[in-house]
Amino acid sequence: MRRSRPLAAALFAASFALAACAPQAPLVGDPFNEIIEGAQGGMPLPPESRYEKADSRPPNLPNGVVPDATPAPGTGPAEDRIPEIVDRGRIIIGVDQSLNLLGFRDSTTGELAGFEVALAQEIARDIFGSPDAVEFRYVDSTERIEALDSGRVDAVVRTMSVTPDREAAVDFSAPYLTARAGILVPASDAENQEGAISSAADLNGRRVCVAADSTPEEIVREEAPGAMLLLVRSWSDCLVALQQHQADAVVSDDTILAGINDQDPGTAIVRRGLSTENYAVGVKEGNVGLASQVNLTMERIRGDGTWQQLYDTWLGAFLPGGFQPSGTYAEVER
Fold it and tell me: Ionotropic glutamate receptor C-terminal domain: from which residue to which, for each copy (predicted)?
């Protein structure tokens, strides 16, 4: 045994020397490597996202078209308008779970929260007498219409702005929120006067993150055809892309940008008012009864001050002076 110890020591020393001379492979899972990758923009893109030139197709903007009239608020019992939902005992509503301030999962409680979540609960309250009689299902921005068509959800309350194309595919309630598109960038870039982004024209030649099939996507195609779009599934992916240096700016509604800025104070909103549009609750095309029921809630929360309370709770500190938009109603055929 005594003779074997020097031999083992010699073998260990030799192997150590050989290892020192051999090329060193990067450490697997080394967090410092991930930091370097992120700083260089080499991290993987968010799932199902892609780059696309803004001028790869013509823009498709509403251009000030007046929205269609929506069914007048319902009267009488809810079961006369939506018997299937009443029989089920709950309404199924599609929301987001990662849009801070609008629809997100509270990390402290694990529960969904935000302005749009609270609005969905008010709709349930007027049907069942309880704000808890709602089943939430997650839908991303690219599948809102499909979720309604397939019956996976009864309604969508997820930053769905009213546009002619969408009006041809779904029915809308009266609007519940007015949004104005803007630009968000890293705060350090906003402070750098040389080459800073401060207008839509400055987006040309930059990588701009937008949610696919969204109105902000069309705004960038119109206002900055020389930009490179990063099309993602959800707006939360844009924050990740900005932090990983995969995008130079985010173009979205101010309601969404406020949530991103709240999550990451290292960002700054440098431009607002690129467009004005209204969010409304989407229901399956032809479901007049449900649209009428939702509009009953819209007018109730206007009259009793609930809308203003919800707005002040979730958005007032970031976007002061908000007010509930009015709807144009058409009489429901009996």
Answer: 90-317
